[in-house]
Specification:
By secondary structure, the chain is mostly helical. It has one domain: Winged helix-like DNA-binding domain superfamily/Winged helix DNA-binding domain (Arc Repressor Mutant, subunit A). The protein contains five helices and two strands. The chain has helices at about 5-10, 15-25, 30-35, 40-55, 75-105, and strands at about 60-65, 65-70. Helix 1 packs across helix 5 (about 75-105). The radius of gyration is 19 Å and the shape is elongated. The termini are far apart.
């Protein structure tokens, strides 16, 4: 597992950060706009955004004096691909189990 993947999973471990990702999935938001949706300080929201950025799950771009935060699809894809491996693993295992059970019932 790469460092970005590890940081991505760390970022996703927190429910607040997952909620922030949901907000950013719709559009780019400033720190203040994200903070309006939570009962926490802007500094706390900025820390959550920083962790999401370290995990490569969001990108930040400057527009004038504002910094706009957005979901980084490539970062999310890396995490999804990692989970995809285990989806395939368990699909294979469960199909094998099903076949064995069906053999026993015949």
């Amino acid at each position: 597992m790469s460092a970005h993947e590890q940081l991505g999973f760390r970022a996703l471990a927190d429910p607040t950060r997952r909620e922030i990702l949901h907000l950013l999935a719709g559009r780019e938001l400033t720190i203040a706009e994200v903070a309006e949706n939570f009962d926490m300080t802007r500094a706390a929201v900025k820390k959550h955004l920083s962790i999401l950025g370290e995990g490569d799950l969001i990108s930040v771009r400057a527009e004038g004096r504002s910094k706009l935060n957005a979901v980084n699809p490539a970062g999310l894809k890396r995490v999804a691909d990692w989970f995809g491996y285990f989806d395939a693993f368990w699909d294979e295992r469960l199909n094998t189990l099903k076949s064995e059970i069906e053999k026993d019932t015949q």
